[in-house]
Each structure stands twice: as structure tokens, then as C-alpha cells.
Amino acid sequence: MPGDLKDGRIVIVGASLAGLRAAEALREEGFTGSLTVVGDEPHAPYDRPPLSKQVLLGQATADTTELPMRMDPDAEWRLGVRATGVDLLAKRVLLEDGEPLPYDRLLITTGTRARPWPDPDEAALEGVFTLRTCEDGAGLAERLAAKPERVLVIGAGFTGSEIASACRELGVEVTVAERGPAPLVGALGGTLSKLAAVMQRNHGVDLRTGVTVTALHGNGSFTGAELSDGSRVDADVCVVALGAIRNVEWLADSGLAAGPRGIACDAGCRAFNMYGIVTDDVFVAGDVSRFPHPLFGYQMLSLEHWGNAVEQAEVAAHNMVNPGPLQRPHLSIPTFWSTQFGLNIKSVGVPTFSDHIVIAQGSLEARRLAMVYGYQGRVTAAVTVDMAKALDYYRHLIETAAPFPPPPGAQDRPIAADITIPSEVPDPSVLSHGPTVALTGHLPDRRLTVV
């Protein structure tokens, strides 16, 4: 490896949001060597959140979601080329076109893909969609614009709920099927998910909870589905919103610690190998990473958040071109937002890392509130509904490990704020939708005793 970290060859695999921001940050940090970005899609890096919002509503087209570049990172873009492996010893990335790509340092930002419907024949029916790529967005937007009789959405996580919201805004009838007890319960816990269920039904969504879809029907084209309760839904479009799969299969023989929950790395974004030893030349950022966070019990977090991809990419880029004592940790507090059924939901921290909650401001009845989550007596998260201005305050409480329930002044409720209720975080295995924050390691209430 060259002595000068600002020089040499850096390869980024994943022409994603994280990949682009890392490429820009490397140049901003003074990296002068050769930079190659490999991506399996033929497109330049583009933005995915609009695909379930503005694109479906016809307010934007899928081909206008390309991410703006803050600066030209002067990279060689190898788009439409799939990486098939990494040889850690020879320090090269293997590509499907057969040409090995040598590196001095490697950054992996391969992200996630939509979890497909498990039956390939049913998944291939015309009118069955997942929503992840810009082609998916364009195809689904076209079908919704043609005003189908009914859309079936399988899974009521954030993506499924946003799609259902877009359908209702377009005046299209929609049925949502969710295996868990309510929409968004995997991300927000029991209390707020009840509000989400009420909002969906108030907006005319045919919401079915506690059921699974057992079969999709059609003769070439999708015509309907059977549910586990014996009922049948007739529809002409089906959107499968069953969460995401991390793109790690290409690393199966690499010797890196890559598995279904992503690639494990340290707080400096350096990937672990399969023996738990940190590498010094392979880094990881974005949705495909799993990293420890001291504010959440050093649990390994897997986050599918836009902001996390940007912030982690910048930390990874900094650490790739600076020596050890100047390297910095990725410690930012997870945040995300969603707009659906006229509500603006914003979250800071990790709501699933909680045992109790308290409604600190507003009320469920008013549909405007700030809910604070705590774990073992300290604040770990907050979620606001149409009250985003309060979030900065709660972020500060999380960063300072403030006591839970929050002290007076942290809430505007006349009743005692120490009326806490269990947060009712479900076991993820009972949900249709994957959690947007996966806590790996112990769950707060399930300690493993090794005898």
C-alpha cells in the first residue's frame, strides 16, 4: 500500500447515494489517486425516496430522480457491471465481465434490493411489482395513472404505507395486507402504529392486519390474491412491500463478515473479516453496513435511512485517506421521515431500542404529538407526528443519555409525564415488513444466558 493515503487506487462498489457521496468526500478530503465506481445498474446514482411519493403521484418522473453532484469526483464510472467477488489477499475486485480491478482501498456501498415475492411464477405475473429501482417506479406510476380498479399492497412498513397513501391520493381503491397487528409497528411500536391504522382506514384503505397473503392468482396477468383467513381480494395491481435484502451475496467467498443483516464493520466503517478481525483497507457504508453504536448499547445497527447513508459515507471517506489517530467514528443519531395520509412522521434515535414510551407533547386524538421512547431509564428515541420542530430538543436528550421519562419542561402535558406505557416493540419475525432499524445482538428484553 502506498505510504501516502491521499494517493493510490480506491475502488467503490455500489453506484448508490452512499457511493456518490463517498466519492465526492474523498476528493474534498484531498485524495488525488485513481477512483473507480462500479455499479450494477446502468444509471448514474439516483434518489429512491421520491419513487414511493412524488413519482407515483405523477409529480415527477422516475428518470428525473438522478442525484445532484456536489462536485465532479473525477471518477471512472463502471455502470451496468456487476461485481462478483473480492480477493482480499490480491487486493482486487472481481467483475462479471472477467476483468479484475486492483485496489489499495475498497469501499462497499452495495445497499439493498427489494425482497421479491417468494413464488417466482406468481411474481412474474403482469401487474405484480416491487418498488426499489427507477424502472419499478416508472412502471408502477404508469399503472396507477391508468386508474386500476384496486391495488393490493402486501406489507405495511414505510414503503407499503406510502404506496397505499399515494393510491388514495390518486383516488384508487387499495387493500393493504400486513401480518403484524398494525402498519409501521415494526418501526414505531404498538401505540403509534394504532394511530397509523386509524389514519389508513379514515382515508378509505381496506386494511387487513394479522393476515398473510398465501397465493397470487392470474392467467398471465394478476387478478387477485388469497389471504390466510380464507378471504380473497380481487385486484389488478399488486405491490410486494416485504422489506429489503442486503446485497452481500457477491461477497460469499470473500472472507468478509457479510451476512443477511449486512457487512459488519467497526465505528470507523472498517469491515470485519469472518473471524471478527478488522481489516484496514476495506470499508463499508450505507444500507449494507452493520455498525456498533455506543448510545444503543453497542448493538450492531443496520439502518435503511437516507441520512445515515450520507453521513456514514463521509466518515468512511475521511477514514480511508487519514491515518489512525485522525480517524473519526460514525456516531450520528439515526433520523428518518415519512409523509403519508397527510401526516408528517419524523423519527430520531432507535424506537425499537425501548421498553417504555411517554407522549410528551400533543395527543393521539389531535394527531399531533411527540412520543419519547426510553430503555432502562434513559431516552433512546423520539417520534413526532406533525410536530417536527420538537425533534432537535429530543435529539439532544438522546445524545446526552437523558433520564427517561424526560424531566418537566420536556413536555407540555398537564398530567404527570411519568405515566409511561410499554413500547410494545414486536418480534420482527411476526411482521410482513422488515424493520428499518434492525437491532442485532440481544434484544433489550431477551438476555441470553450461556450455561
UniProtKB/TrEMBL annotation:
GO terms for cellular component: cytoplasm. Residues 336-406 form the Reductase C-terminal domain. Its cofactor is FAD. Coiled coil: none annotated. The keyword Secreted does not apply. InterPro entries: FAD-oxidoreductase/Apoptosis, FAD/NAD-bd_sf, FAD/NAD-binding_dom, FAD/NAD-linked_Rdtase_dimer_sf, Reductase_C. GO terms for molecular function: oxidoreductase activity, acting on NAD(P)H. It holds the Pfam family Reductase_C. Keywords: FAD, Flavoprotein, Oxidoreductase. Residues 9-313 form the FAD/NAD(P)-binding domain. PANTHER family: APOPTOSIS-INDUCING FACTOR 1 (PTHR43557), RIESKE DOMAIN-CONTAINING PROTEIN-RELATED (PTHR43557:SF2). This is Pyridine nucleotide-disulfide oxidoreductase.
